[in-house]
Amino acid sequence: MWSHERHSKILDRLSRDGKVTTNELAALLEVSSETIRRDFLDLEEQGNLKRVHGGAVLSDRKILPEPAFADRLKTHAGAKMAIGRLAAGLIPAGSTLFIDAGTTTLAFAQEILHHRDLRLITNSIEIAQMVAPHPNLEVLLLGGKPHAEVPATYGELTLSEVDRFLADFAVISPVAYHSTRGATNYALHEAEVARKMIVCSKRCVMLCHAEKIGKESRVAICRPEEIDHLITDDATDPETSLPRGEVHFAPFQCLD
Length: 256
Fold this sequence. Notes:
Blueprint: H1 3-17, E1 19-21, H2 22-29, H3 33-45, E2 49-52, E3 55-58, H4 69-72, H5 77-88, E4 96-99, H6 103-112, E5 118-122, H7 125-131, E6 137-141, E7 145-146, E8 153-154, H8 156-162, E9 167-172, E10 176-178, E11 182-185, H9 188-199, E12 201-207, E13 219-222, E14 229-233, E15 246-250
Parallel strand pairs: 4-5, 4-9, 5-6, 9-12, 12-14, 14-15
Antiparallel strand pairs: 1-3, 2-3, 7-8, 10-11, 11-13
Helix pairs in contact: 2-3, 5-6, 6-7
């Protein structure tokens, strides 16, 4: 079993029970206790749990969960459209983009349809299907394992394919953004793809409507200083800032 698969199972069990023991997980995952202790260390460094004698407990940070993808499509529609429009305006012709799977990145991709001479690399099945008919854009769908709840590909194959490219921008939609912890996601497999896209890009564009700002979820994507552009809506605190990047506030009319 790959480390990211173990981490996901550990977090799922921890979310369910509030605590886990080293011996219990070693037996469940059929690995050594030392392997589980290394997993605990990795997950603690990411802020996802707190190690205790014989096991681990939930981090004392307030964790923001993520609603189902179908439910997210129906919420904050006006803000997502405005954010997508503003973000698309930052992308110059001739650019290559990584785009991860999310409802706000889907709104961004809809705005990109009006552009020309762009190459899009995405794990989102919906984005790939939407962009494919447009001759002015080139799109590549990353291989991998389709997810049951989110229409996208994930896993080791997806990560290895991301590693083959260098993009001008990674356009990412996290579950939350916090001024000290940075961008976070609820699902480990989603965070891993987003993180790899950022590593393989020259610049990072983060799309977050106001409800995500100042919040935390359970898996780290990147630190605040790794973000070049944070695109949010004008309901966000105007004092929101990045250590080295630029914050953009998109005006919108509420459609929710």
